[in-house]
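Help needed: design a sequence for this.
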């Protein structure tokens, strides 16, 4: 599992669509699908219910989303901290 997969997962969960998430991240639908399949394989369970109407989260997917969002937010804060430099760290 890596931060890219976590961010992709959050976007898929919020959009309910692999294609919409792929567009937002500027990757192919195949790359998005592979990232989500790899993530699900790590858990050994489905995170998504797939249907013709789109994608919804399983119970495990809901639990993962609740933990993934703060991780993503923290990672983005760390990235921002690195961009702003040491003198601005106290302000974050």
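Sure. Designed sequence:
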């Amino acid at each position: 599992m890596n931060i890219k997969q976590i961010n992709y997962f959050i976007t898929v969960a919020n959009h309910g669509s692999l294609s919409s998430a792929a567009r937002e991240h500027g990757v192919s639908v195949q790359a998005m699908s592979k990232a989500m399949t790899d993530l699900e394989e790590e858990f050994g369970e489905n995170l998504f219910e797939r249907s013709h109407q789109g994608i919804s989260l399983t119970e495990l997917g809901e639990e993962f989303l609740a933990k993934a969002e703060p991780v993503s937010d923290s990672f983005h804060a760390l990235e921002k901290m690195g961009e702003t430099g040491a003198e601005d760290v106290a302000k974050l």
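The mean pLDDT is 91.
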